[in-house]
Amino acid sequence: MQEMPVLRPLCTTDSSSTQGCAMTTTLPSIRKQRDRQPRLRYSPRWIGAGLAGSVLAGVAGFYGGLPITLALAGAGAMSAGYALTIEPRRIRLTVKDLSFEHLPSGLDGLTIGQLSDLHLGHRYSFTNAHQAIDQLLATQPEIIVLTGDLVQTRAAISRLPDVLRRLHAPLGVYAVPGNHDYWEGMPHIATMLREHGIQLLINRHRLIERQGARLLLAGVDDHWDGSPDLELAVGGAPAHDFRILLAHCPDIADEAATAGFHLQLSGHTHGGHVRLPGLGPLCLPRHGWRYDMGHFQVGSMHLFVSRGISGLPLRLGCPPEVNLFQLRRIAAETGDAQSATLRAHGDHGEAARFQRPSAGSPARD
Predict the structure, then answer these.
(1) Is residue 197 in some structural domain?
(2) How many domains, the chain?
(3) What share of the chain is helix, strand, coil (3-state, %, to 5)?
(4) Which UniProt keywords apply (predicted)?
(5) Is 272 in the same domain as 303?
(6) 290 and 327: one domain?
(7) What is the pLDDT of residues 284-317, one digit of tens each?
(8) Burial status of residue 98 (CB atoms within 10 A of its CB: 0-12, 13-18, 19 or more)
(9) Which of 16, 123, 339, 344 is geometrically suited to a Cys-Cys bond with 313, CB 3.0 to 4.6 A?
């Protein structure tokens, strides 16, 4: 299969610069040719439940007659209506304290707001984006991060400035690309981010100072259509700095933990869009099969995967969210207990259903 060129940063990892990377103009504005890997992986539990439900509904309708059939059809229609028109617009503000044993005292209490997967161009997407920004700005985060998939359609790029100009934070606004950004026109998106003072971190980092302490904030290229490089992202940086990674796809987390990051913020999965107790997510995209939603402990690193703000206008049991994190310094013994709990269960215990057989190594295609 012929490889198509991808976006490359024409810059060093110099932390003093306040501008985003200059981009090559060779990146195609069309989708890459599809390879043979599946774009989505569907849960076998959902498939089994669907088959069993169809059989039971048929049996109930046969023996219960028309009233039962109409009741089942009505319940299905109501659920579908809610999933298509109500839940996709019910954005929740998820506030999370993240505790670290070795957090510098100057970073204690630092707040970070995350906006992920705006997917501008989908139904409800612009309304959702502005509602999410309203909620986030009301919390006055010190840093705002955008973890990919800003747009869903090429036509939406022209309206992207209406969203970007609203984003501001005392310690800066930072972004990484997602696969849909590449598919719809990453060079134009990169230009708009720079024009609005948003620093695009593609395999590079920034050093942020707060109250005498220093934070290394790094970002990597998209796992699906880019060339993520953790070594390049932290090149030349002191090893002792507290490190946070922005990555659109969460499944790079195992590598990030090995590379010495303390926290990774990701999106991409949308939590599976549809999830019910006992069944978990209906489906997950490539590079999001291992860590589906919420808070995980990956080695000594915290990982948080946002459900995102828009995307396919279908959600059930998985409402969109905007995220606010506060970093906290804790005692060693408290941290050990919290880490053990997260390693055992995550925040919801669903991701294991999508793990590959080799759970000890990074998930790869």
Answers:
(1) yes
(2) 2
(3) 35, 25, 45
(4) Hydrolase, Membrane, Metal-binding, Transmembrane, Transmembrane helix
(5) yes
(6) yes
(7) 766 656 888 899 999 999 999 999 998 878 888 8
(8) buried
(9) 123
Taking a C-beta distance cutoff of 8 angstroms, is the pair 220, 251 a contact? no
Residues 6+ apart with CB under 8 A from 344: none
What was the pLDDT predicted at 341? 46
Is 298 in the same domain as 201?
Answer: yes
Which of left, alpha, beta for 354 (phi over 0: left; psi -120 to 50: alpha)? alpha
57 lies in the same domain as 143: no
For 84-141, write each residue's pLDDT tens digit. 778 788 899 999 999 999 899 999 999 999 999 999 998 889 999 999 999 999 999 9
Instruction: Say if residue 74 is in the same domain as residue 149.
Output: no
* Domain termination site, one of 83, 113, 147: 83
Phi, psi of 103 (to 5 degrees): -70, 125
Chosen domain end from 50, 68, 83: 83
Q: What is the Cα–Cα distance from 223 to 231, expressed in whole angstroms?
A: 15
- 59 lies in which domain range? 42-83
Q: How large a percentage of the chain has pLDDT more than 90?
A: 51
Residues of the chain where predicted confidence (pLDDT) is lower than 70: 1-76, 79, 278-281, 283, 285-289, 331-365
Looking at residue 198, what DSSP letter applies? Answer: P
| 62 φ, ψ (degrees, to nearest 5) | -65, -45
Angle at 118 between CA 116 and CA 120, to 5 degrees: 160
| Residues 313 and 333 occupy one common structural domain | yes
Give start and end residues of each alpha helix (H) in the chain.
44-85, 125-138, 160-164, 179-195, 230-233, 253-258, 332-345
What letter does residue 316 receive in the DSSP assignment? B
Q: What is the distance between the alpha carbons of residues 77 and 282, in angstroms, rounded to a whole number?
A: 18
b/e per residue 160-186 (b: at least 16 CB within 10 A): beebbeebebebbbbbbbbbbbbbbbb
